Amino acid sequence: MQAISTSFYRWNLISGVKRWAGIQNFVDILTSMDTARVVGVTLEYTALSVLLELVVGLGLALLVRHGLMQKWPGFAAFRVMLCIPIMIAPLIWAFYFKSMYSPQFGIFNIVLGWFGIPPVAWVNSSSTALLSLIVADAWQWTPFMFAVLLAGLLTLPEEVTEAAIIDGATRWQILKWIELPLLKPILMVALLLRLIDSLKNIDLIIVITQGGPGTSTEILNYYAYSTSFQGFQVGYGAALALIVFVVIMALVLALMAALNRTSAKGARG
Known about the structure:
The protein is an all-alpha fold and about 270 residues long. The chain has one domain: MetI-like fold (Orthogonal Bundle), CATH 1.10.3720. About 70% of the residues lie in helices and about 0% in strands.
């Protein structure tokens, strides 16, 4: 409630001036070119990171399920090892990747040096900084997508798959026409959780890039944080944070509605 009431004021922490602004903070945010730029960066960051996590997570889940079903040695331990990154606190993970992206001493540039490739300014260049953050985010949270999708794949009825194999269906046809439709509710839940978490992510940006170089990695949540605690415009920052909250809630409601429609179709079927 305090954040909501603060969003209706112009409040500068440096001068201490606090005056009623009504909805002017929200009007300024929604008509600002800075907001449009930040929204674009946020959408790019969220879409690419979640898509990468989904594709790689599903691929790993299919691989590990096949290994478990074939009783290949070591796959049970491999499944556990893949989940290690999600056990690390996001802030600590951010510091790990900050050191790994170091131009002189980072492991990525050391590996490139082995092949005679010059160092890359991973997070020090506006052309690669956002992609570098996406890789760091996906490296930690792909195991989450993998674990959820593997659990879903292992619960699918084997009778349907076996019948399709007898009818001559290929593995790709089984995956496309049988397994993915059955897995759709779990996919949507996993996407919902990751989209929410990605939209409110701030640890990587604070530790690694601080929104830079320039404003190339400034997403909505960091924009609200920097406006409040670096620009000291608390009212404006509170309004930004409230807008982020509304966007996340709208996304949650939309995906829940889609999930309910999917469940209803499944029940009728």
